Amino acid sequence: MVLADLTAGAVADAERRAQSRPLAQVESDALARPAAKDALSFLAPADRVKIIAEVKRASPSRGPLASIPDPALQASLYETGGASAISVLTEERRFGGSLADLEAVTARVSVPVLRKDFIATRYQVLEARSAGADLVLLIVAGLDRSVLEELFAFITELGMTPLVETHSADELEVAIDLGAPLIGVNARDLTTLELDRDLFGRLSDRIPDTAVKIAESAVLSPEDVTHYRSAGADVVLIGEALVTGDPVATLTRFLDAGSIALPGRKKTP
Ligand SMILES: O=C(O)c1ccccc1NCC(=O)[C@H](O)[C@H](O)COP(=O)(O)O
Fold it and tell me: Which residue among 139, 150, 219, 269 is least crowded, i.e. fewest CB within 10 A of its CB?
């Protein structure tokens, strides 16, 4: 199963890193960092869609996408284009990412940065904070409930914001029970890699208005952004469409396409 393999590989890679950088060291590096940015204020619902733009070199579903020799430059172009946050895929084996990418990006941009990886241990969370991350992804389908709750609390304790990712009504219930402030619905089934761009629209009404509603994956055109926005997305997370061509121009077109006010949608506290 893709998700289980990705998670096992990410945990094994973190265990390897822990041999040269023990937990006590990464913890002290994490605690020495300036406070994480308040991601919720950057991603709060507004009269237009917001975008989390992803630094993504490759993926299991699409293979190599772009070499991205300078991830910090890529991220700064995203910021120039109007992204409200940056996602950095740090998984090494199938996405070609690294913690060094994350560290380079957090050093360059002023918007919050998400560590996008297959997080299953406190060590990985501490690595995220020590590299300057403001947000950490937790995938409901990849974690036992007790681990999910523990990591959610730990991320919050470290001053970061968890983005809780779901792909079904049942997983959404878990995210809501946790009190997740940012709830993502990924169009991609991480066990089969199939895409369902309509899933967000089927689930979005169930997400409480107190949470920021994030549609993830499968945006290739401005029409896809309009589709998600019209279905109630506060934020859209986009990878593949931004890593080639001119990301500033693409983001401008995407933001224009999501410039639609959602009647009745109030700002989160
Ligand atoms: O992208 C994949 O193939 C993939 C496979 C297995 C687990 C996760 C995967 N991607 C992570 C993501 O969720 C996306 O990178 C992100 O939502 C952006 O998606 P896209 O705009 O479709 O590149």
Answer: 269
CB neighbour list of residue 157: distance below 8 Å, 6 or more residues apart: none
Ligand 1 proximity of 121 Cβ (cutoff 6 Å) = no
The residue whose CB lies within 8 Å of the most ligand 1 atoms, and thus the one to mutate among 188, 196, 237, 243, is 188
* Contact yes or no for 135/38 (Cβ under 8 A): no
Cα of 188 to ligand 1 centre, how many Å? 7
pLDDT digit string, tens, across residues 204-226: 999 999 999 999 999 999 999 99
Residue 125 identity (one-letter amino acid): V
What pLDDT digit, counting tens, does each position of 245-261 carry? 999 999 999 999 999 99
For residue 224, give Cα distances in angstroms to 51, 55, 110, 185, 258: 13, 19, 27, 15, 9
Please report, in angstroms and rounded to a whole number, the separation of the first and last CA atoms in the chain. 39
**pTM of the full structure:** 0.97
Closest by CA position to 128, among listed 87, 68, 79: 87
What is the rounded average pLDDT for all residues in the chain? 97
**Catalytic site includes residue 87:** no
By most ligand atoms within 8 Å of CB, the mutation choice from 95, 217, 237 for ligand 1 is 217
Q: Looking at domain 1-258, does it have CATH number 1.10.1380.10? A: no
132: left (phi over 0), alpha (psi -120 to 50) or beta: left
Q: Identify which of 111, 140, 132 has the alpha carbon closest to the alpha carbon of residue 235.
A: 111
Helices and strands per DSSP (H, E), number in the chain: 11, 10
pLDDT tens readout for residues 169-195: 999 999 999 999 999 999 999 999 999
Residue 62 has pLDDT above 60, yes or no: yes
